[in-house]
Write a structure and sequence with these properties.
By secondary structure, this protein is an alpha+beta fold. Helices cover 20% and strands 36% of the residues. The two termini are 34 Å apart. The model is unreliable at 147-151 (pLDDT under 50).
Length: 151
C-alpha cells in the first residue's frame, strides 16, 4: 500500500484487502488540525458512495454502497430490511455488515493522517463468493464501467 499511495494527499483507488468473508479498503483520509475541525479526503473507489458532508459537524460516518451495487444486493439477497410476523423490521442477515477502522499514520514529510478504512463482512460464505464474482474488478480498484464503454 505504501508505494501505491506514497503521498499523504493521494486519493486514487487502491485494491481492497480481501478477508475470509469480506473485504476492507481505505475510504477516507483525515487530516487532523489542532483546535479546528479536521479536513477529510474521500479516496476514489467504485464500491461505496462518498460520505455525506455536514457543514456544522464534518462528516456523517456511514457507509453506503453505490446504487448499482445496492440493486444487485437486493436482487441477490433480498431487501436490506425485513419484517417479522408482527411487522417489526429487522436487518436482513444475508446483507453484509460494515464497520469503520481508523489507523493513525505518520508520513515521511511529517504529515499526520488518520486512515479510515471500511470493513465489509458477509455472514454467508456463498453470498460473499457471489459478490466477489460479480464485483471482483471493483474490489481490485477498477472504476465502474460507463454505459458508453459497455455498449
Amino acid at each position: 500500500m505504501e508505494q501505491d499511495h506514497a503521498e499523504a494527499t493521494a486519493v486514487h483507488a487502491l485494491p481492497a484487502q480481501l478477508l475470509a468473508c469480506g473485504f476492507r479498503f481505505l475510504l477516507l483520509r483525515e487530516y487532523p488540525t489542532d483546535g479546528r475541525p479536521s479536513a477529510f479526503a474521500f479516496i476514489d473507489q467504485s464500491l461505496m458512495r462518498s460520505p455525506e458532508r455536514n457543514a456544522s459537524h464534518g462528516l456523517w460516518f456511514a457507509g453506503a454502497f453505490l446504487p448499482d451495487i445496492v440493486a444487485w444486493l437486493s436482487d441477490e439477497l433480498g431487501r436490506p430490511s425485513l419484517h417479522d410476523d408482527v411487522g417489526k423490521p429487522y436487518r436482513n442477515p444475508r446483507w453484509p455488515s460494515q464497520s469503520w477502522r481508523p489507523e493513525e499514520r505518520r508520513w515521511p514529510d511529517g504529515a499526520r493522517t488518520v486512515e479510515w478504512s471500511i470493513e465489509v463482512t458477509f455472514d454467508d460464505l456463498q453470498c460473499w463468493a457471489r459478490f466477489q464474482r460479480r464485483w471482483g474488478e471493483r474490489l481490485r480498484g477498477a472504476p465502474p464501467k460507463t454505459a458508453k464503454a459497455s455498449a
